[in-house]
Amino acid sequence: MSFIKRKHLKILFCLFFLLILTNCQLKDPSKLHGIKFLKNREEVLIINEFNKNDVVKLLGKPHTVSLSSDNKWIYFERTITRGKLQRLGRNVLKDNNILELNFDDRGVLVSKKFYSKEDINKIKIAEDKTDNTVSKKSFVSNMLGSIRQKMYGNR
């Protein structure tokens, strides 16, 4: 009988060991937003030879189209992974690539710009704030708002 118990213990030990090994991951867990390998696909694009249809076949529909014109397309690649022990397992930005494509009026690729994570960190953002004239309230709406606060504030 002790032989059967040893045999079962060996099988249980092997199953337990197999379970532990299958849960170990050699690759970092990562979340991707956008297009994989954007840098490699950007190198394939040839200026003055590719048009909008060729770009859509290669990269898909653009993530963002410029508000001022339909001739500026923007594609993203963003990869987030888990941090190491010193980051306490928080999410860490691994890749943050942006591809900006400009087309002429006929739809032919005129220029392309690739921004990596390091390039984006070098960009300086202006500290100036702009006033939003659309959301400013008029004198009448300010007065009615204060009357409404006084009416419903005493309840």
Structural class, judged by helices and strands? alpha+beta
> Terminal Cα separation, in Å?
82 Å
Number of strands: 5
Shape category: flat
H and E string: HEHHEEEEHH
- The count of helical stretches stands at 5
Percent range for helical residues? 25-40%
- Measured by DSSP, the beta-strand proportion falls in 15-25%
Query: Strand count, sense and closure of the main sheet?
Result: 5 strands, antiparallel
Computed CA radius of gyration, to the nearest angstrom: 29 Å
> Mean pLDDT, as a whole number?
82
Unreliable residue runs: none
Strand and helix layout:
Elements: H1 2-23, E1 30-34, H2 38-44, H3 52-59, E2 64-65, E3 72-82, E4 91-103, E5 109-115, H4 117-122, H5 139-153
Antiparallel strand pairs: 1-3, 2-3, 3-4, 4-5
